[in-house]
Amino acid sequence: MNANTPPPLPSDGLAAALEAAGRDPVLPAETRDLLARAAIELRALAIDADAARSRYRALFDAVPDPVSILSEDGTVLDLNKAGIAAYRRPREEIVGRNIDFLNPDLPRDHMAPVWETLNRGETFVIEVTNMRADGSRFPVEVHSANFDFEGRKSIVAVARDLSQRGEAETRYRELMELIDVGILIQDMSGSFQYANSAALRMIGLRSGESLEDAMRLENWIPLREDGSQMPYDELPSVRCMRSGRIVESSLLGMYHRGRRQLTWISATVVPQYAPGASKPHQMLTLFSDVTHLKRNSTLFDRAQALAHIGGWEIDLGRDRVFLTDEALRILGPHEKPEGLVDVLACLREGERARFREALQRATDGGGFDLELQGMRANGEPFWVRVIGELETRQTASPYLTGTVQDITTDKRDEESLRVLARTDPLTGLLNRDAVLDALEERLADPAQAQIAVLYIDLDRFKTVNDALGHNAGDELLVRAARRIANAVGTEGLIARFGGDEFLVACDATGDPQQPERLAERILGAFADSFRFGKDEFAITASIGVAHAPQDGDRPQALIQNADLAMYDSKRRGRNGWQAFTPELARRQQDRLQIESQLRRAVDNDEFHLVYQPQVDLRFGRVVAAEALIRWQSHQLGELRPDLFISHAETTGDIVRIGQWVLREACRQVRAWQDQGLGIVRVAVNVSYRQFVGDELAERVRAVLDEFSLPGSALELEFTERVLIEDAPSTLRTFADLRALGVVLTIDDFGEGYSALNYLRRLPIHGLKLSQLFTEGVPNNRSDVAVCQAVSGIARSLGLGLVAEGVESEAQRQFLLGLGVPIGQGFLFAPGLSPDDFARRLREETPLDRLSNG
After folding, report:
1. Where is the GGDEF domain (predicted)?
2. What's the total number of domains in the chain?
3. In the 3-class helix/strand/coil scheme, how is 300-340 assigned residue by residue?
4. Residue 648 and residue 663 share a domain
5. What angle do CA 614, 619, 620 make, to 5 degrees?
6. Please, which residues have CB within 8 angstroms of residue 352's CB and are 6 or more apart in sequence?
7. Residue 98: DSSP 8-state
């Protein structure tokens, strides 16, 4: 028997039994006749039933679409040939299985809506995706109707293949655009391919914004039903993507970060299969906005509380106000507000008018988004963001609705960031930007414009920083800031302006002398030294004071002039204060002009050298010369060396100028030798900047080689500052220079550091006694004592000694008495031009002149 042969009917066995009984001789004849007729009738019925079944099967299999007979619970009772062909499975593999075996994407309880429709006497129609034996899918439209199958309440379902349905697709698209349900289509990577009009409206797509950008996950916070944040793996689309199965109605909240707006949706995600595919190629999400349905629900209130968002509605015509529980918590009124006046009472006075104006604008069709300040009933201040718009419902009076969000924490964070942005992180004082803003604000207000600025710079801060490291330097700045703050108190604004510089701005309206008194108090605060473990440092301050508006009516000008006064104070000896004056400004202008011209002086050939003879104090013979620089500026005229040398040191131009002096002096020595005057030793001053630069010895060697001079023709004079440079490179430089035969001398000995411990370690030849001391002898006891001490040091260390500034015979005699052999000064000659110096040499007899010094 094959699948198409009907099974034997029960009546066949019964007819055979009746025929057998009719042949039983024991029974009466009448009974046997009755049984024989019954058997004949049963045989006829069986033949009729068999014919009916054959007709049923023929008709059933003749239908070109798949036809299934289903039981009440969805079990397949029968399937026609078209169904077997469509599903590509044998009949016995399908019959007896539930219909979801062929339609795996059907939702749970899928038979309930079918029977609900059929019981009303209607035909149930649905579009689903059927699956073949190889897993490929094809879309069908299924029509279901009531059917009595062998006495059982059943369903006959006819499935029409929709794979070729061009016109139907167009109608489907039109329907998608017309229905008020959001529809999103994504590919299986999650990229958004399509959204209907309802979806775009609910998403809040802005003009010019793409769907993909609007739906970026970073723009949204998904929430579970309980209001907690939903993990990525729980998103309905992600679950559908990973399982390939339908994800039925899921309730979730979508909180938009930018708009701070929470929307609740109910979403169903359905995987969609292309004809012949075994895996879905896209997902269809259908969702509805159910926010209004959840306004008063517990879950909605909990989610609003978590997001600190409450809802409100105002009926302006009837002056009725509705607030959600979270909105009430945010505003914290004494009692639940009944009307607008009660809500306004929660706001600060100035904010009430803003809110009223916003409500009025909204009634004209506009929306509003405000940040307002208020005070809760318990006295606690708050910040809220209120968003509102006109409700579109048909009412007799304006009806407004919106949200209120607690942004107090955000505002406090903003204030903290603002304070941090205006505060120096090390000292806790105001920073540069903050004090500039404060000065700008005060100077713009005539009532506050009479202020003064104190520019404070720590003296010898670098000493601590270099000796103990940056951590000690930072600690010094913190402690110095504390001393300044204690000295100023509440009488001024204090800022760290940068590095070891501080700024104090104070009001000078009532007391013009207050800035100077503050300066004295600050200097007094630095009277005690700073201790770092066993080390103790005397750190003082130099202060410049400038008054507005006479010294500047803009922050930068006022600070610049205070800075200028501070540098003048530092130049005068430090640990003091100096008020700005027009004379300081003039000198500053002159300095800038000098520095500007100084940079071009070498290139413009504006420098020249004069040579002051160094003579034997006993016999007056010239033994050497010191090269002295002079500057004849094309723009500024003749400038004194003491005026421009310090500028050159500050700007660094001294290095280039010093190199020019070195080369020019050696060139001149070569010229004198070529004139037959012998090799005159010339002393050249070397700046500390030149000394710490790279390869001083190599540069000296190169110049000597250029002019074919021995090292003994050159004497280099260094300041006492090099004595504290106890670095290996210092000793190496001196050793290299001495190896060249160059004479090495410490200039103006006794004026500076006088580091005797280092003096005995350096390979030098001699000392120069400063004019500062020789000018007081023989009458000034202090100068006499210093000259005697220096002379003794030179004699004990075996060093040569040259006295500068010898201007009188009494000085010469005194120095000779001390044993000083060589001197220079106006007593013998000022600085001479090269020709005059050559003439002086020629005037001396050959026996008097020393060719090598």
Report:
1. 449-582
2. 6
3. HHHHHHHHCEEEEEEECCCCEEEECHHHHHHHCCCCCCCCH
4. yes
5. 35
6. 344
7. B
Do 681 and 822 sit in the same domain of this protein? yes
Nearest to 368 by CA among 380, 359, 379: 359
In a domain, 852, yes or no: no
245 and 323, same domain (yes or no): no
| Identity of the amino acid at 77 | L
If asked whether residues 781 and 695 sit together in one domain, one would say yes
CA distance between the termini of the chain:
141
Cis before 549 (ω within 30): yes
Domain membership flag for residue 601? no
Tokens representing residue 241 in the block: 């993507």
What are the pLDDT digits (tens) for 418-441?
666 678 888 888 888 888 888 888
Residues 721 and 810 in one domain: yes
Q: Is residue 553 part of a domain?
A: yes
Distance of alpha carbon 98 from alpha carbon 101, whole angstroms: 6
Q: How far apart are CA 407 and CA 263, in angstroms?
A: 19
- 435 and 409 together in one domain: no
**Integer-rounded Cα radius of gyration of the chain:** 53
Instruction: Tell which residue, 614, 652, 531, has the closest CA to residue 841.
Output: 614
Q: Indicate the residue among 294, 322, 339 that finishes a domain.
A: 294
Q: Domain of residue 770: give its range.
A: 611-843
Q: In a 3-state reduction of DSSP, which class is residue 261? A: strand
Q: Does 827 lie in the same domain as 728?
A: yes
Q: How far apart are the C-alpha atoms of 523 and 566, rounded to whole Å?
A: 13
Lowest average pLDDT, out of 229-238, 561-570, 724-733, 807-816, goes to 724-733
Q: Do 229 and 206 meet the contact criterion of CB atoms below 8 Å apart?
A: no
CA distance 257 to 240: 25
Confidence label for 333 from pLDDT (cuts 50, 70 and 90):
confident
pLDDT digits (tens, 9 = 90+) for 561-604: 999 888 888 877 788 898 888 888 777 777 777 777 787 888 88
Per the DSSP assignment, residues forming a β-bridge with 124 are: 144
The CATH number given to whatever domain includes residue 487 is 3.30.70.270
How far is residue 309's CA from residue 838's CA, in Å, rounded to a whole number? 97
The answer for residues whose C-beta is within 8 angstroms of residue 336's C-beta and 6 or more apart is: 323, 328
Residue with tokens 């014919």: 51
In a domain, 680, yes or no: yes
Round to whole Å and give the CA distance between 532 and 479. Answer: 11
